[in-house]
Write a structure and sequence with these properties.
With about 500 residues, this protein is an alpha+beta fold. The protein has 16 helices and 23 strands. It has a 7-stranded mixed β-sheet with strand order 17-18-16-15-21-22-23. A 6-stranded mixed β-sheet has the order 3-2-1-5-14-13, with helices on both faces. It has a two-stranded antiparallel sheet with strand order 4-7. A hairpin with a 5-residue loop joins strand 2 (about 15-20) and strand 3 (about 25-35). Helix 12 crosses helix 13 (about 415-425). The longest helix is centred in the last third of the chain and has 27 residues, at about 375-400. The protein is globular.
Length: about 500
């Protein structure tokens, strides 16, 4: 039997390839960053060709580190930054424009125009999503409207669209030489073009946005063999595809309704499994597809999306030069007892859940002469925990099931100060698993299930192991007082951008 499963994890700031064994343990990992391109305020782009180059490099690197070849892999899965839109020429394999990243706000006018008739929730009954710059559909429209010749090429059937998963799978399976153009429901449900009840691209919405259906990938299950890889992975079945947050839900083995996880990365994303029934949100959350395994019914989730968490630490490092490396923030924040009255609301590209205000911008509130850089660092970390608290409140209200514990993953979960504060402000235990990189693990699980490397999801539950738990210690009255101040600071960000 082949020993391992691979996962290509294409994230917002970097790409990595991870190799896992049957117990879900990491065998090897190789990782490389790619450039963040900011052509104008509010615009965020990536070069899809650079991303594909990095993908090939990390695949080669991880195989070398593990001392194995493609022949030792049973399957490979893909997980990706969601809502980042790529449009490319099916004949040349070249993008017609840079990838427009999920954080990008250039489509605000498109979204406002669409919302003028029926409001920002007009597509929610079909898509589970508000009209917001976050999602891929308006980005495709922007490319077709603004790139010379793009619309004519699209209407002639020469252009393909995908979130980054579809771009990577197409290239992995041969590109212009027979690459398969597919996505899965977890990614499709992030476009504003996908009907979450029929599980198909919605013809009325495509007409509304002027997007030819020929551009869109075929929607397959999240765990299914799509094709066979070429290049360094030649002969390996490409068999799993999950958007990064759904992949983390899967990797955290949140397979039962009511189980939830929070991933701390560039942004922060809390997902709650709601089972085979979609739960429409009344509190600013997204109704999204969790995953679909082979022929089994699709599983839905409620999601709270926060745009800026880890990215705020990077901003402190890169834009202000207050720290040299991201992990240094914990020591700096620990130089003070508390936040000194400072609240930092990082609405750099508007506010996501539960507010959905594209016109919000970042605010530091409560500054006095007393405040030093330790207080700012602490406020930066606390911003992640407070935003998560707002999302959890919305989730409890929507689901009617109060959360009893939170499984966490992602890069920031090794920050003890943050995780303790997170438990304090939620009032529930916060649990980190042994394998904190659950995004890549989820993609590997989906691929392995498709080829029988793992027989069923219960085999995966047996792999999950607890690493550390933080218990709440904060006095409830203090928590309520500080939360009220946070809420007050949030209101100061509203309607800043004209």
């Amino acid at each position: 039997m082949t020993k391992y499963v691979g996962a290509l994890d294409q994230g917002t700031t970097s790409t990595r390839f991870m190799i896992f064994d049957h117990a879900g343990a990491v065998v090897a990992v190789d990782q490389k960053e790619h450039e963040q391109i900011f052509p104008k305020p509010g615009w965020v782009e990536h070069d899809p060709m650079e991303i594909w180059t990095r993908s090939q490099e990390v695949i080669k690197g991880a195989l070398a580190k593990a001392g194995i070849t493609a022949a030792d892999l049973a399957a490979v899965g893909i997980t990706n930054q969601r809502e980042t839109a790529v449009v490319w020429d099916r004949k040349t394999g070249k993008p017609v424009y840079n990838a427009i990243v999920w954080q990008d706000t250039r489509t605000d006018q498109i979204c406002a125009a669409l919302a003028a008739d029926g409001g920002s929730d007009r597509l929610r009954p079909k898509t589970g999503l508000p009209l917001a710059t976050y999602f891929s559909g308006p980005k495709i429209k922007w490319i077709l409207d603004n790139v010379d010749g793009a619309r004519a090429k699209a209407e002639a059937g020469d252009l393909l669209f995908g979130n980054i998963d579809a771009w990577c799978i197409w290239n992995l399976t041969g590109g212009t030489s027979g690459g398969v153009h597919v996505t899965d429901p977890s990614n499709a449900s992030r476009t504003l073009l996908f009907n979450y009840t029929t599980l198909e691209w919605d013809p009325e919405i495509l007409a509304l946005m002027g997007i030819p259906k020929s551009m869109l990938p075929v929607v397959k299950a999240s765990s299914e063999v799509y094709g066979t890889a070429v290049g360094d992975l030649a002969g390996v079945p490409v068999a799993g595809d999950l958007g990064d947050q759904q992949a983390a839900l899967f990797g955290q083995t949140c397979f039962s309704p009511g189980e939830a996880k929070n991933t701390y990365g560039t942004g922060c994303f809390m997902l709650l499994n709601t089972g085979t029934k979609a739960v429409p949100s009344k509190n600013g959350l997204l109704t999204t597809l969790g995953y679909k395994i082979g022929n089994q019914p699709a599983v839905y989730a409620l999601e709270g999306s926060i745009a800026i968490t880890g990215a705020l630490v990077q901003w402190l490092r890169d834009n202000l030069g207050m720290i040299e490396k991201s992990p240094d923030i914990e020591a700096l924040a620990a130089t003070v007892e508390d936040n000194g009255g400072v609240y930092f609301v990082p609405a750099f590209s508007g506010l996501f859940a539960p507010y959905w205000k594209n016109s919000a911008r970042g605010v530091i509130a409560g500054l006095t002469r007393y405040v030093n850089k330790g207080h700012i660092a602490r406020a930066v970390l606390e911003a992640t925990a407070w935003q998560t608290r707002e999302v959890l409140d919305a989730m409890n209200a929507d689901s009617g099931v109060p959360l009893t514990a939170l499984k966490v993953d992602g890069g920031m979960v090794f920050n003890d100060l943050l995780m303790q504060f997170q438990s304090d402000v939620l009032g529930v235990p916060v649990i980190r698993p042994k394998v904190a990189e659950t995004t890549a693990l989820g993609a590997a699980y989906a691929a392995g299930l498709a080829v029988g490397y793992w027989a069923e999801v219960e085999d995966l539950r047996a792999n999950w192991a607890k690493d550390k738990t933080w218990e709440p210690k904060m006095d409830a009255a203090l928590r309520d007082k500080e939360y009220a101040l946070w809420k007050k600071a949030v209101t100061r960000t509203f309607d800043w951008a004209e």
